Amino acid sequence: MGNTVIVGTQWGDEGKGKIVDLLSEHADYVVRFQGGNNAGHTMVVKGKEIISHLIPSGIIQQKKCFIGNGVVVDPFVLLEEIDYLLSNNIDVSPDMLKISNRAHIIMPYHRLIDSAREAQKGDQKIGTTGRGIGPCYEDKATRRGIRFCDLLDFDLFKEKVKTILEEKNFYLEHYFKTETIDPETVIDQFQKIKERLLPYVADVSVILFDGINNNKTILFEGAQGTHLDIEHGTYPFVTSSSVVAGNAANGSGVGPANINEIIGIVKAYTTRVGAGPFPTELFDDIGDKIQKTGSEFGATTGRKRRCGWLDMVVLRNAARLNSLTGLAITKLDVLDDLDEIKICTGYEYNGTIIKDFPPEIKILQECTQVYETHPGWKQDISGITSFNDLPQNAKNYLARIEELSNVKIKIVSVGPGREATIIKESIFN
């Protein structure tokens, strides 16, 4: 397996965690390159569910894991996650995990601003998780962020906190009319965790470069999905970072020529958490059935996911933006009991058929979906491990996805466990 990027093709929650867990066995390093603890990857190992939010899910396979410079990290959440994984007998020592010294730190005031902003918007809120990710990226863009390397000079760290909080406290008190933060309290909080964090901090870009030169194989793990990308998603109902595969290089400090394969993860239907347009959303009994059968609740937030039919306008957009070399279809088994399954092939708006994903929210909200209907297979496929053994209607459905996306399917997941996976075309060699 060459250096491989795993990216979501829809609005996140596609099942990337399982695929990363599966492919990690064939990689030396696993790298997270964007986002924050607003992501959640769920793995089922020997019947036990393990959820990670910041630490790459390759840690389950005991691979060396890296949090890249493109990630924003809440250090308190990180330490909680380390303790959680340690309690599950998973080695998360500094030998196994490194955090980029250039990664930005989510500070307590970022979380306060995030929550206050959403509360003020009321019905117009974006649907952020309130974890401070957006405000942290804001400070990164305006060059007033605090990075992990700043902890190495704690006197400088203290000066930065005091200076930044003069502005943040004014903003919190006079604009949001909410509580302020004492700089000394923040400094004291970091003083208590600093020594535990520092052994994890390193120049991840240099380590990965040396690894590549020593024939180490890297798996790049993305969070969220293509249509939550800050550049290419359903703006403003997007995340605060660039989700697409191109950011795997930038967010980890690895040159783009070192990436060999890009696998797009596609749920066999479509889901979305939070606000924002969702053209194929179902509001009927079928949508409820998919939601319940698929246990569609956010791994990070616990929020109920909105469910709908597979949207090929969305998938074709993701294929183009990410230069996908292969697809991994997840949760195909969730559709087992349906009599009919629909695929959206385009949108109709003002008498025109739209094949390419539009940027305008109004069009996405007002368009009519163009569907084709396929017969269901009405059979439990969760125990099938060979592609040839799938029901013909299931194979037809997958073939149509390949045809409409012009990307080969390489992996099909028919259940949450590692064993419930069909390798259609190997990417391991």
Automatic annotation (TrEMBL):
Organism: Desulfobacula toluolica (strain DSM 7467 / Tol2)
GO terms for MF: adenylosuccinate synthase activity; GTP binding; lyase activity; magnesium ion binding
Localisation: Cytoplasm
SMART domains named in the record: Adenylsucc_synt
An annotated GO BP: IMP metabolic process
Top class in the EC scheme: ligase
Statement: the UniProt record of this protein carries the keyword Lyase: yes
Residue sites binding substrate per the record: 299-305
Coiled coil segments of this chain: none
Binding, Mg(2+): 13, 40
Residues reported to bind IMP: 13-16, 38-41, 129, 143, 224, 239, 303
Protein keywords: Cytoplasm, GTP-binding, Ligase, Lyase, Magnesium, Metal-binding, Nucleotide-binding, Purine biosynthesis
Gene name in the database record: purA
Protein name, UniProt field: Adenylosuccinate synthetase
E.C. code: 6.3.4.4
Cofactor(s) essential for the protein: Mg(2+)
